[in-house]
Design brief:
By secondary structure, this protein is of the alpha+beta class. The chain folds into two domains: 257 residues, no CATH class; 168 residues, Sandwich (Jelly Rolls), CATH 2.60.120. Helices cover 19% and strands 25% of the residues. The chain has eight helices and 21 strands. The longest helix has 26 residues. The chain is globular.
């Protein structure tokens, strides 16, 4: 069985500082935009964290996501989620027991506040790992118990997200039973730091306070803190006095930071058979702030490529944009080569660049290897109404702008090396 125990990453970024007032307004505007892009993913994480009912305590979603779930963009319909926003200042640790040996797909991702996946534990059902982890923040000097794998994070703040695979509605109760086996032992006896400043209504000021609240609780030599130093002239990190010109440029950049300025996730990677294959840096972005922001906007919480491959389609095989006025035939004669499972979902495009499931009469939000008709290869028809080709599996699409997303969990080397070609999306006359 596959045992993908731990990815512990620290991506080094070179720190570059610029003296305020030394450039033209145009150059300052460009630097402010880069600063806003850097801040965007932290602001998105803070937004989701602010909606969490508590710190250092798991909240469990006991049902699969549907069209009513709009907290996190582009959710999946394959797994239950268990989420815990960690607050681990000096001397505090979190002990997590994750049921990796439960006979089904289970993964734990520890994400930093800039969306990097810092650690990952995953199993397709049976693992040699114990599933016991101790997570510690900056300044933790003690020795971890022998039966726990130590995971160090560079900030007091992090997001622990557990996914538990569900094959169909009949499997939901069994998956919930596995979810109930998640155990956490985290100090919660003191007043915990809020990750965000929700009462500040001014958008540029709020984003600045959100980022600085995280940076204050982050190791100064961490990649996140080092990347922030490049933008200190705008007040990030509170390391310098902000000039009026820099403040004006910052405010203009934040207000201009929409889906167009950030860009779409499909701008980073390559196109194969009309499907976008994302850049390999996904979930561990280094200094690519635009790619990081684009994923935070349209796919917050994405996993690294070795754990999951996300393919996105917005055009058909002829290169024409997908249209709700057409029907599409997608032939999975050769299903995605995975060691866990795969699925295909359709999402409605929102004006702000986010994507959510589509309300439909079947309450169907994904098809894939959980469908008996597709396990060994089969045809999917994507359309707004039920197709006449009854031998196919119907995936309802939006009456309006939409995109298709193919997820492949535990992708094999054949898939990761792109030796498997995704299916053609063929418009039906």
């Amino acid at each position: 069985m596959i045992d993908r125990r731990t990815i512990l990453g620290a991506l080094l970024a070179a720190a570059t500082s610029y003296p305020a007032g030394s450039r033209s307004n145009k150059a300052l505007d460009q630097e402010a935009l880069q600063a806003a892009l850097f801040a965007f993913s932290i602001g998105e994480m803070a937004r989701v964290a602010a909606a969490s009912p508590a710190r250092n305590r798991f909240s469990h979603r006991r049902t699969l996501s549907d069209h009513t779930n709009r907290g996190v963009t582009m959710p999946n319909n394959d797994t239950l989620y268990s989420s815990c926003w960690l607050d681990l200042p000096t001397g505090v640790h979190a002990d997590l027991d994750i049921p990796l040996n439960s006979g089904r797909y289970v993964s734990l991702a520890i994400m930093g506040m800039d969306t990097d996946v810092l650690a990952l534990a995953s199993s397709n059902g049976q693992s040699t790992a114990t599933g016991k982890y101790r997570i510690v923040g900056p300044g933790w000097r003690k020795k971890a118990p022998d039966d726990r794998l130590l995971i160090r994070i560079p900030s007091a703040d992090a997001w622990a997200l557990v996914r538990i695979g569900v094959s169909d509605k009949q499997d939901l109760a069994a998956a919930q039973a596995v979810q109930s086996k998640i155990v956490s032992n985290i100090e919660t006896s003191r007043s915990l730091q809020r990750i965000t400043a929700p009462l500040v209504q001014d958008r540029p000021k709020r984003l600045l306070e959100q980022v600085n609240a995280v940076l204050e609780r982050t190791t100064p030599r961490s990649p996140l803190a080092m990347r922030a130093r490049r933008h200190r002239q705008f007040g990030l990190g509170k390391m310098t006095q902000v000039s009026p010109a820099a403040n004006t440029a910052w405010r203009k950049a934040v207000f201009a930071l929409d889906a167009g300025a950030i860009g779409d996730i499909t701008e980073f990677g390559e196109i194969i058979n009309g499907w976008h294959w994302p850049d390999k840096a996904i979930a561990q972005y280094g200094k690519n702030e635009r790619f990081r922001a684009a994923v935070a906007l349209s796919g917050l919480g994405a996993l690294p490529e070795m754990e999951a491959v996300y393919l996105t389609a917005m055009t058909d095989i002829k290169g024409a944009p997908l249209s709700s006025s057409r029907q599409y035939r997608i032939d999975f004669a050769t299903p995605p080569p995975v060691d866990a499972f795969w699925s295909l979902s359709a999402y409605r495009a929102e004006p702000d660049g986010r994507y959510f499931f589509i309300d439909n009469p079947l309450n169907r939000y994904a098809v894939g290897s959980s469908n008996q008709e597709l396990r060994n290869g089969g045809v999917v028809i994507a359309s707004t109404s039920k197709p006449s080709e009854y031998s196919s599996v119907w995936l309802p699409i939006a009456d309006g702008p939409f995109r298709l997303v193919l997820r492949a969990y535990h992708p094999t080397l054949t898939l990761r090396s792109k030796r498997w070609a995704p299916p053609n999306i063929v418009p039906i006359s």
